[in-house]
Q: What sequence folds into this?
């Protein structure tokens, strides 16, 4: 049985497990004050090209979205996101739980349009009754998006420009950032992300770590008393080292990008095979999640031998499913899958 | 330099790291549906003597307290705790963040008195204005307590009886439960805890795991849609396996209790040495946290060679500090410390 | 200068002021336990045809929506509303403030379609990942809607049927209910509303009272400890009598419906005048809010002599505005306005 | 039957009802933008001696405490109050509902001691682990206190000095402020309150209004977007005029203080009568709430003819009860009560 269900089906990259074993008995302070977190923060700052960046380690994606958004919004503000944004759809109301509305915009293959954002904010402030409404307080995008698509540098710059003009912090959910950064053809670098956003995170859980996300606040932008608010959200790890060791490893010798390349290489081969055989894509994207529309009967057959994720019902006889590759995908499994197609 | 700062200074018991390495490439579903979580749940049910217990894995102690209390209280209820309870003092308001008050009772060496609890609840309901006040909705205790003390079986039974009479769920914070269960002289077993509480957790972070707490709801008592509420709190781990593998290991061949015994054995030797030398204890307790009152000058000298935790200022010339042992403490370090005393 | 800005521009119906004066020195208990609240509750139960209905008085509409929705939803649930619902747009995030998402459906002249609701809920529960999403937990409609339109009895019954099938409480925002109940041609009575919803309110603020909304929970459906939760929301009035006296008056000799008829009579005359003169309506409705599209130049002229509410920009040269009538509108003012058209 | 149950048993001072009748048909904008609110704000600024003060009208005391505290605290902060503070005990957890802890200090006849406050804050910041705890973020006092006692000017100045030094806003709950300001012997004026606090409110509900509290933020200190946050809390009145007219009346010709004097005059006569007859006071105070300890049998007899409030059980045979006077108390009722003593 082959599995292309998601990019978090295995444990961690072996170099990470090695590092956990190697550092295991070193006694360190808790709560992120350890030597590993310190070193990882330094390496991440270097990779981002911003020596003034604040870096904080959290455990998972929804937690990170919740803590970042809640601590950066004023009480009367909401976060603007695409209607397909993870925070809008698949986090069980974690943002609303903290008292904030998710204000949604249309999506274009998962992406937000800078002009539509500008119109939305301008219309809001032009409304004479806007003080009876939720203020747009920050902007959430994901890169890669929930559809696996990527912003171009020009698109990011346009969003940045609108956000800066309206003084809205721009937040990038980078749960799969590694895959986005190494995709052939992208013109967006980690330095660009650092320059153009006000906060973003470098996803670990889905890019080779056991767990963990590195939140980066460029230009010393971390909210005051952030650690206390993380604690208040129940999100502060006693053994901060557990994430510190992992990111220290991922940002040593460019492991983070090199293992992401494996996912993209596997996806590219698989994507070409689907295309050659005339399969229909729900949305075309260049990253590690391939969204294919299958006739239901064909899907049932395929699922005898391959595990995939249900994505959405397309019509009564067709279903969209996701084939995900990861840092751990073996090319031989890709080839075995192609064999079956 | 010796360190007795706390019981989470190292990584994890080597058997846990071995298990993470061994299982690393096994592909499993996310969010706790993996084979390791399933197996760990089964082993924990067996150890608890309750085949109907629900078991859920979370990442840390404050998170667990927050999620459990918030999901088990009605909106108009608060949680009753000792004034020294972790939830009352050292969680940055994580309970209040969820909208609930912590109603405090006096502590007796860190413990709640069943009679005082009964009086408190009876007085509340006798007050003609109690519908303008926060209803007591559940009871929080820790075992070992924040002072390292332990409830006796009789004390737990008395609390259980009061709680049952007033229909208040009894919640035990077991962040250090392992140490409490193996302390010589205790008459409280894991089966007793299961029988006498409505929810408790088996601490992993401080008892040999990288991270993780196993929340047990005896008698199928988990709130409906608990997973969704965990997700809503940002507390659901995508790679649930990371905690599953660890608890599966801890509950294989009684690893959990056997490694806890090391901490207690080390603490007993150290405690006897303090007593022999006439040191004063802030509170006497039988577990792995020794609270000693030191003259400030003496403390300063000692801290040249041993790292300890500040506990509280006793008076202008004395300070209470904590010496903690753990699953990882080496008896040779204990002996080296005794040498210094 | 004429004013058709809204239906809360004046104080209260004179009979209400008379009653406040008449009862002023009668000493009564606080918090809704007074004789006036008791009497008003009884009269409302009678008017609703449900002797078992629970009735609770609150101060305003947003407060009522917030308190009712928050106390009737489980923590993991959201409220389903039209995208134009007051709770979705114009309450500054009061629902999200309580931790709940507003799940939106398309609107049809301000109304929710029962079939679309059914599809939405069915799709939700059919989604294999729905436990990572916000559960639909109740349904919010307004009657009259935000566009002044009315549900037919058949439409309400269809919504009721869908809600009952999915066990979703149906909540009707009746901030302007009085106007809806007396509109010629409506086939919906107060008894119907009582029979078909699980909670609704009879608006006072916009129908002749100084302030106040009467929340009705048919069939003894008020949540347990509702008063305590109202207090917790800061919404419990010490002098509950202030609202009690007003509703007692409004439900004596059918004052509530008789004064609402004035608004509708005035609106009908005005609406006919607009139609005769060929004005365009943004949405056609039969109640007390007339939404007219005006050429901007014409609007500017008109505003020299009549105050109206901005509704929305239609295009670069046209604007929709609202002319509202109320219990207090004088027919002579309507005639003066028609003169100007 | 006589009633001394509380100071909100009647409706409103007749001058207020007259004003409501007189202004009833004047058409005004909603949400506090009306001419009455504007005029009332101006008069209150004048009475406070601060032309820069922001003034906002809300409906009731708990609501005001909740909105003010929630909007002035940072998310990681709590409010410091006496253990007997209304916010700590009798608001059903309204503060915690907004996510903030109430940090309690001992009370001294209901009052907070400036030195104890200073110690508390100093100890907090000296604690090396304070970033795991709730930060003190503002200070709540009531004047008169819950025991009817009053701060002296020196005590208020001391609290002000401590608060200013630690940059903690000082908030005075003035639900009964009118009674406190006219008590013979007090050296605290409204100008003093304005000068020494950062926010306070002038209670209307308990001092002659139907409902309403005037929140004053001296020195333009109202939080940005306060109206939106009030709306978000469900606390914004559509007919803001209803409170505006009342405060405009109360601050015309010093009505507010003159009607408060009636309560104090009645209380003084009654208090002297209790003292003469050797009754024991639970707490001695100079304002309009007299707390008397009665033998239970005596209380039962008295309650045949006088309604009073239960305050607390003193011992098995004695109970403390409250006799409250108000703007509406008639001296002849006081004399009738004295007759019974």
A:
């Amino acid at each position: 049985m082959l599995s292309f269900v998601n990019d978090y089906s295995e444990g961690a990259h072996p170099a990470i497990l090695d590092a956990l074993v190697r550092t295991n008995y070193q006694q360190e302070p808790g709560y992120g004050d350890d030597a590993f977190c310190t070193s990882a923060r330094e390496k991440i700052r270097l990779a981002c090209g911003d020596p003034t960046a604040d870096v904080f380690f959290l455990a998972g994606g929804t937690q990170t979205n919740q803590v970042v958004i809640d601590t950066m919004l004023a009480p009367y503000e909401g976060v603007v996101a695409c209607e397909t944004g993870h925070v809008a759809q698949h986090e069980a109301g974690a943002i609303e739980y903290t008292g904030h509305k998710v204000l949604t915009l249309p999506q274009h293959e998962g992406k937000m349009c800078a002009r539509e954002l500008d119109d939305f904010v301008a219309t809001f402030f032009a409304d004479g009754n806007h003080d009876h409404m939720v203020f747009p307080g920050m902007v959430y995008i994901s890169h890669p998006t929930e559809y696996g698509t990527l912003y171009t540098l020009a698109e990011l710059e346009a969003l940045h420009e609108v956000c800066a003009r309206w003084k809205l912090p721009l937040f990038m959910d980078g749960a799969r950032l590694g895959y986005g950064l190494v995709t052939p053809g992208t013109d967006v670098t980690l330095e660009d992300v650092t320059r153009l956003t006000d906060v973003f995170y470098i996803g670990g859980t889905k890019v080779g770590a056991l767990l963990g996300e590195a939140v980066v606040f460029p230009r010393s932008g971390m909210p005051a008393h952030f650690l206390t608010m993380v604690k208040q959200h129940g999100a502060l790890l006693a053994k901060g080292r557990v994430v510190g060791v992992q990111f220290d490893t991922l940002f040593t010798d460019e492991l983070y990008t090199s293992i992401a390349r494996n996912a993209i290489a596997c996806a590219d081969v698989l994507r070409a095979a689907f295309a050659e055989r005339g399969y229909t894509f729900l949305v075309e994207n260049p990253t590690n999640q391939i969204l294919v529309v299958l006739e239901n009967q064909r899907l049932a057959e395929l699922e005898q031998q391959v595990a995939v994720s249900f994505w959405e019902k397309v019509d009564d006889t067709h279903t969209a499913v996701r084939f995900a590759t990861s840092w751990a995908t073996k090319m031989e499994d890709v080839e075995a899958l192609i064999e079956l197609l």
User: Anything to note?
Assistant: The first strand of chain C starts at residue 2 and ends at 3.
